[in-house]
Design a protein that fits this description.
single chain; Rossmann fold; binds guanosine-5'-monophosphate; six-stranded mixed β-sheet; alpha/beta; 6 helices; two-stranded antiparallel ribbon; globular; 197 residues
Length: 197
């Protein structure tokens, strides 16, 4: 998605060879026009997948998935990262997820009221690195007896192992921007030539 790639190039910040900061349009300040376009693109890519629910993880997954769910005409559910007194193991599905950015394991939860057997769940997240967040959401869908209809990722870091792990498990993944490398402070997308000086 060219518009997204342009935003990454012009407004993203390479923090290290493994981490990209996109607070300018996705992770802190939200470019609502861009996120609407991202959501519509996901809706288009998964329109034949029979999606009944869109599932993401708070908080950065919510903006890109909102318009997708709206366009598909489905509810949007976000998994919670913080424990709530209103949810426990009898009322919620839970999965333990190692957070790439926080470098700690979190328990993510979704109320049993909102996903059930027969649902076809589209999982959306802002980044794909090693696949832990997406796998946690797949685990929650499976605990609910639902099917994963697909996985939509805004920014995939293709040099990390997430895509391979998810593909080996047979999931249909669509990423709107695929980054081949963040070396030397530069974003290089998959299928772009490497320039030598
Ligand atoms: P994974 O679970 O695939 O290892 O990592 C994905 C999650 O970690 C995403 O939900 C995202 O919040 C965060 N993440 C991973 N890599 C990056 C990155 O380079 N930049 C930012 N801002 N978040 C990232």
């Amino acid at each position: 998605m060219d518009r997204l790639k342009q935003a990454i190039q012009e407004r993203g910040l390479v923090l290290s060879s493994g981490v990209l900061k996109v607070d300018q349009f996705l992770n802190h300040q939200i470019d609502t026009a861009l996120m609407s376009a991202v959501g519509e693109e996901f809706a288009h890519l998964f329109e034949e997948s029979g999606v009944t629910k869109v599932l993401t993880i708070e908080s950065s997954g919510i903006a890109p998935s909102f318009m997708c769910a709206h366009a598909l005409g489905t509810p949007l559910i976000f998994a919670r990262k913080k424990k709530s007194v209103t949810m426990n193991e009898t009322t919620a599905y839970a999965s333990r997820v190692y957070s790439f950015t926080k470098q700690e394991t979190l328990e993510v939860t979704v109320s049993k009221d909102f996903i059930s057997e027969g649902d076809r769940v589209l999982i959306i997240d802002d980044f794909l690195a090693n696949g832990r967040a997406a796998l946690g959401l797949c685990d929650i869908a499976s605990k609910a007896g639902a099917t994963v209809a697909g996985i939509g990722i805004v920014i995939e870091k293709s040099f990390q192992e997430g895509r391979q792990i998810l593909e080996e498990k047979g999931y249909h993944i669509e990423s709107l921007a695929r980054i081949a490398s963040l070396e030397n402070g530069t974003v290089r997308f998959v299928d772009e030539p490497v320039h030598s000086n």
